[in-house]
What does this fold into?
Amino acid sequence: MRIYIDESGNLGGIGSKISEEDPYFVLAALVAREEIPIRRCIKDVRHTLKKRYKVKSELKFKESDYPTKRRILKCIAETDNDISYVFLRKDQPALLTPYIGAEPQLLYNDLCKQLLQRVILGYDLEGAIEVVR
It folds into this structure.
């Protein structure tokens, strides 16, 4: 089974004024029970995009328009796959005190660990699991 992980936002500026401008960080996991329907969703949506987006190797959700985002999410929702996530509000100093001044990678790794533990334990996954970032 594959678990695809991607993030939205960044971990810079924790506990500073910068975090007020970019207050959230989301780390999401797509638990791929059936990969072929997911690939078909992306392929079908790519066929409807303008030529400049078709040649890119990766679809950037942030750069996509609302109808494209909606088509992708609707299509994935109709498959036998799941989405799990960790949501972080960067303006919570009590929670983030150990990470202030530390490398953002440390917090990122801890968030990945929490997300993967929740997915693996929550879904009772066994056998080989491939994590794709």
